[in-house]
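Quick one, probably user error.
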């Protein structure tokens, strides 16, 4: 068919998609990644979004942050090769785009874990907060926001990536009613604003600066953001949600589209077509109406295929993304593992149906 963005997320946090476990020899890590990319080509995907910064750490040679523990089992220990350089070379050799995916503000998945000396929590403890058993970089610290952006720009400058991508971890998802501990930061920087407005402003400033900085470093790279799939409960009117992304994650993703602070938005539309409370087509149409000419390529929950959600649901959702879209259509699978497992026969159905023909990249 014509141009279409067909992506899949490859998560490295907790070894969700790759590598299968920490501590494998470099040759086995490379072999697993090569098999993954071969499968992507066989399925006629054209983009892989590889998580290169799970938690203020690196899947690449970095002078700014330590090697991730998800490669070797211990933070700061080299795997013996540069996984991002390898992934880019192997992806490009197969005609795939490679987008470097960053978690912006998570500092450690476990608060008490062993951290390398050059980890941000060791270098700048004044920026780091403990919340719900994890460590987080406080987005209210201007220098901390600049630091995170510098990490992304470093990759954009040094690696031939086709995109820079961030997920939905801005302020952390609320846990057990606990408040994020930023009283001191708010007192220092948030005078004259409500806490919620100040937090949203912090994230808006981050997104704006991130976009401009990355585009300056690598103009041809696509900058993508993958927010929670519902902007606010009740928007549109039939939509219900237990999480208010705008008020609890302080993520005004509609504004980012309006301001042009991304090249594509990938809202996580992980719901089915039928239910009115979180309807895939209703949400897709709403996001497209906010696009201001930017691409809206939704995330689809391929991993949720099972008895209650057959593989056909994913095919039907892909068909919807191809209807009435302004510009080239696209979508991203969460995640690559479900495609590799051929969950519910999804890989076979894609090859026989919506992916029968290769698609050019938009």
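Nope, works fine. Designed sequence:
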């Amino acid at each position: 068919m014509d141009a279409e963005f067909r992506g899949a997320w490859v998560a490295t946090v907790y070894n969700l998609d790759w590598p299968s476990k920490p501590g494998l020899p470099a040759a086995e890590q490379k072999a697993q990644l090569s098999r993954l990319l071969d499968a992507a080509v066989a399925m006629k995907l054209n983009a892989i979004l590889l998580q290169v910064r799970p938690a203020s750490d690196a899947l690449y040679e970095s002078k700014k942050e330590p090697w991730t523990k998800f490669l070797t089992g211990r933070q700061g220990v080299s795997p013996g090769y540069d996984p991002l350089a390898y992934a880019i070379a192997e992806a490009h050799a197969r005609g795939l785009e490679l987008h470097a995916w960053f978690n912006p503000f998570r500092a450690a998945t476990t608060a008490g874990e062993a951290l390398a000396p050059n980890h941000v929590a060791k270098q700048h403890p004044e920026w780091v907060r403990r919340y719900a058993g994890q460590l987080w970089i406080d987005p209210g610290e201007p220098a901390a926001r600049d630091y995170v952006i510098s990490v992304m720009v470093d990759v954009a400058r040094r690696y031939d990536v086709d995109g820079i991508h961030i997920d939905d971890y801005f302020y952390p998802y609320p846990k057990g009613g606990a408040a994020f501990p930023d009283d001191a930061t708010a007192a220092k920087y948030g005078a004259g604003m409500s806490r919620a407005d100040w937090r949203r402003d912090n994230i808006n400033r981050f997104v704006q600066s991130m976009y401009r900085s990355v585009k300056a470093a690598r103009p041809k790279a696509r900058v993508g953001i993958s927010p929670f799939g519902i902007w606010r409960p009740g928007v549109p009117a039939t939509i219900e949600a237990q999480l208010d992304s705008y008020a609890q994650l302080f993520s005004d993703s509609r504004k980012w589209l309006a301001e042009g602070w991304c090249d594509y938005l990938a809202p996580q539309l992980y719901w089915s077509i039928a239910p009115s409370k979180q309807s895939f087509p209703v949400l897709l149409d709403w996001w497209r109406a906010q696009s201001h000419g930017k691409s809206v390529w939704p995330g689809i929950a391929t991993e949720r295929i099972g008895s209650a959600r057959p593989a056909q649901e994913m095919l039907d959702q892909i068909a919807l993304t191809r209807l009435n879209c302004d510009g080239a259509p696209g979508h991203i699978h969460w995640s690559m593992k479900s495609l590799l497992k051929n969950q519910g026969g999804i890989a076979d159905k894609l090859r026989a149906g919506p992916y029968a023909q290769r698609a050019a990249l938009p």
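Residues 104 and 148 are 6 Å apart (CA to CA).
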